[in-house]
Automatic annotation (TrEMBL), chain A:
The keyword Membrane does not apply. Keywords: Cell cycle, Cell division. The keyword Cell cycle applies. Prevents the cell division inhibition by proteins MinC and MinD at internal division sites while permitting inhibition at polar sites. This ensures cell division at the proper site by restricting the formation of a division septum at the midpoint of the long axis of the cell. This is Cell division topological specificity factor. It comes from the Bacteria. Belongs to the MinE family. Signal peptide: none annotated. The gene is minE. InterPro entries: MinE, MinE_sf.
From TrEMBL, chain B:
Keywords: ATP-binding, Cell cycle, Cell division, Nucleotide-binding, Septation. ATPase required for the correct placement of the division site. Cell division inhibitors MinC and MinD act in concert to form an inhibitor capable of blocking formation of the polar Z ring septums. Rapidly oscillates between the poles of the cell to destabilize FtsZ filaments that have formed before they mature into polar Z rings. This is Septum site-determining protein MinD. Coiled coil: none annotated. ATP binds at K11, G12, G13, V14, G15, K16, T17, T18. The keyword Cell cycle applies. Residues 5-226 form the CobQ/CobB/MinD/ParA nucleotide binding domain. SUPFAM superfamilies: P-loop containing nucleoside triphosphate hydrolases (SSF52540). One of its GO terms (biological process) is division septum assembly. It comes from the Bacteria.
Length: 96, 272
């Protein structure tokens, strides 16, 4: 009876997507326009934070995890650095 | 002195060549001496859309490298007076275009033309930069679709920083928004970005809205710029846009879904 399900499915109106398109564009362009007039500081900020941490503990550059979420009102930059413990077992974590 | 107009977009396949052909033909129909230059070196297509592909002998790269004189490369349109086409090269690559070479061609064409239209290739590299460098005005062709709007915004940034006007700190390139492939029925259903949203986001003056139309394919099949088909909505919309470009006040049309009669609703009539 899958044809019956198909009929009902096709009746359900799809949500309009154009408004999502507009919202997403407004956010991404707000960021790109800033980048045009001055350099995006986030990559540099990340480098400097990692450098500061490296001054105090030796860290493995391969174990630095960076994630960025560019939002409309607020962006979040999360930097996770695995710190080797004194016994070099497991390691502690620092978050910035 | 001619006005140099670049038809640009960043993104490919949005209707730059279709619009360049229509605009050049429309301006010439209004008595303006017009040359349209294909900057898409390696992917020549304006010749086909203008229906002059069989008459191409020399191209812009031949002129720049001194293998041919400008007069030899220009193709005179047989349908409209005072319209000429300068084709792109099909065999060379975009590095064959130089600022000096293009500058000289534009300077020479400026002497006895009113408008020089530059049909830009996609992207923001050499070919696109050459097409926009000498521009006084820009027609930014945009589809109601996220990637096209984003790329248009990007190309506006390039116009404001890398054009000759920007470099020489003169008045900025005058920007015009041309929305193409607009489908009012899909906009009404909320499936497609609406005109007001695009205008709000890009925030440049609106020159025209060209509806999605089957006659554009018919026009390219036969090599007649769609503006010559005044039965079609796209042809009429281009004609309106040319009038606006020349300073006339013309209402925007074709922004609402066409009212379909019972007949076409039953038999699935489409926009001409
Ligand atoms: N208003 C329109 N309605 C329907 N198809 C269109 C319209 N404008 C352009 N097209 C089609 O879109 C495609 C790309 O157009 P083209 O002018 O070659 O774009 P570009 O030069 O930007 O790459 C072509 O197949 C063309 O026929
Ligand atoms: Mg093209």
């Amino acid at each position: 009876m899958s044809w019956l399900a198909d009929i009902f499915r096709s009746r359900k109106p799809e949500p309009a997507t154009a408004s999502q398109a507009k919202e997403r564009l407004q956010i991404v362009l707000a960021h790109e326009r800033i980048g045009r007039t001055r350099e995006d500081f986030l990559p540099k900020l990340q480098q400097e934070i990692v450098a500061v941490v490296a001054r105090y503990v030796s860290i493995d550059p391969g174990r630095v995890n960076v994630s960025l979420d560019r939002g409309g009102d607020m962006s979040t930059l999360a930097i996770e650095i695995d710190l080797p413990g004194p016994g070099a077992q497991g390691g502690r974590r620092a978050s910035a | 002195m001619a006005e140099v107009i670049v038809v640009t977009s960043g993104k490919g396949g949005v209707g730059k060549t279709t619009s360049s052909a229509a605009f050049a033909t429309g301006l010439a129909q209004r008595g303006k001496r017009t040359v349209v230059i294909d900057f898409d070196v390696g992917l020549r297509n304006l010749d086909l859309i203008m229906g002059v592909e069989r008459r191409v002998v020399f191209d812009i790269v031949n002129v720049i490298s001194g293998e041919a004189r400008l007069n030899q490369a220009l193709i005179r349109d047989k349908r409209v007076d005072c319209l000429q086409i300068l084709p792109a090269s099909q065999t060379r690559d975009k590095d064959a275009l130089t600022k000096e070479g293009v500058g000289k061609i534009i300077e020479e064409l400026s002497k006895d033309n009113d408008y020089i239209l530059c049909d830009s290739p996609a992207g923001i590299e050499k070919g696109a930069l050459m097409a926009l460098y000498f521009a006084d005005q820009a027609i930014v062709v945009t589809n109601p679709e996220v990637s096209s709007v984003r790329d248009s915004d990007r190309i506006l940034g390039v116009l404001q920083s890398k054009s000759r006007r920007a470099e020489e700190k003169r008045d900025p390139v005058k920007e015009h928004l041309l929305v193409t492939r607009y489908d009012p029925a899909r906009v009404e259903k909320g499936e497609m970005l609406k005109l007001d949203d695009i205008r709000e986001i890009l925030a440049i003056p609106l020159l025209g809205v060209i509806p999605e139309s089957e006659s554009v394919l018919k026009a390219s099949n036969t090599g007649n710029p769609v503006i010559m088909d005044q039965e079609s909505v796209a042809g009429q919309a281009y004609k309106d846009a040319v009038s606006r470009f020349l300073g006339e006040k013309v209402e925007h049309r074709f922004l609402e879904p066409a009212k379909k009669g019972i007949f076409s609703r039953l038999f699935g009539g489409r926009a001409a």
